[in-house]
Write a structure and sequence with these properties.
Layout lengths: L12 H11 L7 H16 L6 H23 L3 H20 L1
């Protein structure tokens, strides 16, 4: 999805590039798909510890994807279920990280 499509007109082109590079998901996906992309981008950021510009870009991509996931959840027929799915995915990832 390009910067002019859907609800992403305010997303800077470079952030769209980072989302594509690190999240590997389209911005017109479902709330859970976008949350999975955010998790993937967070993994990419964590794989680059220290003061690394690429880690910052991956973190910004994760932020953008999670924001889009929440917006997609608001537009879902059942927002409560969509938000529950997002939180479940994030919780599962947090538990994996604690191991």
């Amino acid at each position: 999805m390009s910067a002019g499509e859907g609800g992403v007109g305010s997303v800077p082109p470079e952030v769209l590039e980072w989302i594509d590079r690190y999240g590997r998901v389209r911005l017109d996906g479902s709330a859970p798909e976008l949350a999975r992309g955010a998790i993937q981008a967070l993994r990419e950021a964590l794989a680059r510890p220290g003061r690394v510009r690429e880690a910052a870009y991956a973190l910004l991509a994760a932020d953008g994807l999670l924001t889009q996931a929440v917006e997609a959840g608001l537009e879902d027929e059942d927002p409560e279920t969509a938000f529950h799915a997002i939180l479940t995915l994030l919780g599962q990832e947090a538990e994996r990280g604690d191991e």
